[in-house]
# Entry
Amino acid sequence: MKNTKYLKITFALLLLITFSSCDEFLSEIPDNRTQIDTPEKISEVLVNAYPQASYLDLAETMSDNVGDGELATKILRNEQNYNWETNTETNWDTETFYWAACYNAIAHANQALKSIEQLGNPASLNPQKGEALVARAYAHFMLVSFWSNRYNPATASTDLGIPYVREPETELIKSYKRNTVKEVFDFIEEDLEEGLKHVTNNYKQPRFHFNIDAARSFASRFYLVKGDWDKVLEVSESLGSKPVGKLKDYATLSSLAPDIQFIEYGRSTYETNLLIVSASSRLGRSASTFNFYLSDDKQTELFRIQTNPFNKNWLFDFYSYNSSRTLFTPKFEEYFKYTNLTANIGEPYVGIVLASNDEFYLNRIEALVMKGRIAEANTELEYFLGTRTTGYNPNTDKLTEAKVVSMYPVIADEYTPFYQMTPVQTSYVKAIAEAKRRDFVHEGLRWFDIKRFNIVVEHATFGKPVNKLVKDDKRRALQIPLSASNYGVEKNPR
# Structure
């Protein structure tokens, strides 16, 4: 069998990688490159096949979950995200940083796949192959979700996607062409379906890999965007009805002190947390430094008792570092890795949940709605909301179709996906989207619903005119980073 070598990756898509913690494989000169010729070494490469950066602040700040806290200090990237402007910085938590992290992850997945191929594609390496394929699909999905127009089959064949990279690099500088959105989605689906056949739970720490449920959860998100409801239901069938013990236990979580909640939220032993990554990020500092965050007014708007279908308080806890100008719910604990103790220099890391049963379950409920199975969807949504409600009583706290239609009325031209929805479906989809919006506050998932439903967003800044993100606004697709556009990757129109 042929020995496989890990190729040095310096192509244009990665020119601005700034991870000082980047895998040593990427910096070795040719004669010193590590040979990837055993299952153990391939598995080692796959540890880095996940974007080790955070998109959460970026996505959350662009959404309608944030407001102006009117703090004296402003952080540039936070202000730029709030106004849907291109980040001028390239370090932690910026657009460029996340773009580079995704392609860095893709590079590792591609090298693992190439090594498996050169070792003869033995069945014994199918688990690694499955993980690499799903990881490659995930990173490309996140890229196309941020840097392209929303998926619409009517325009996908002409909409600009992102470069879908399927081979390790052999050239120092290579020119990249953007695939169309349709091509990107076709490649994702191909990788995902093949990967799902082979992923496993056989890991020492399965929650840090695309285990079976994590891969299915990602698949449910992908197929939800595509509007393939049958596929969503197929991959989520294992959840069953009212998945007791599989969702976040907010009743227990809210009984803990906030400093403990920070740690507990992303704990790998939580049943609901399916995939966790240790991201190089300052995410844990956002609540204390960002002006454009969950403002007091926005928190009241989202979490007042009237927004709960059972007219009871939500179980979510909120705290403040600055006299209630901005609020947070404890989710992100920073771990600081010192690179020089004497100089007090190092890098911040945050454990973030990339896939959870909570999102997985909501995706399934939405697919039930879109298949016209309203009664089933109602039962599952009632259960989900009950687990987030203080003093919920399943015998008396009931969700009915009439209540859903009343609380979430159809508003003309508000939710406009590429597919048609009946009035009842629209009300239920809004109810699910609003549940997800609250459950994943600070985590950025709201932005993906804003894009796929083409929801209008208004951002108010004290002393300035309201900034409005209208339907089909070109700013919904982030601008391609200079690190890529300077080397031939076509920019998005503005």
Residues 1-12, 15-33 have pLDDT under 50 and may be disordered. Residues 163 and 177 are 6 Å apart (CA to CA).
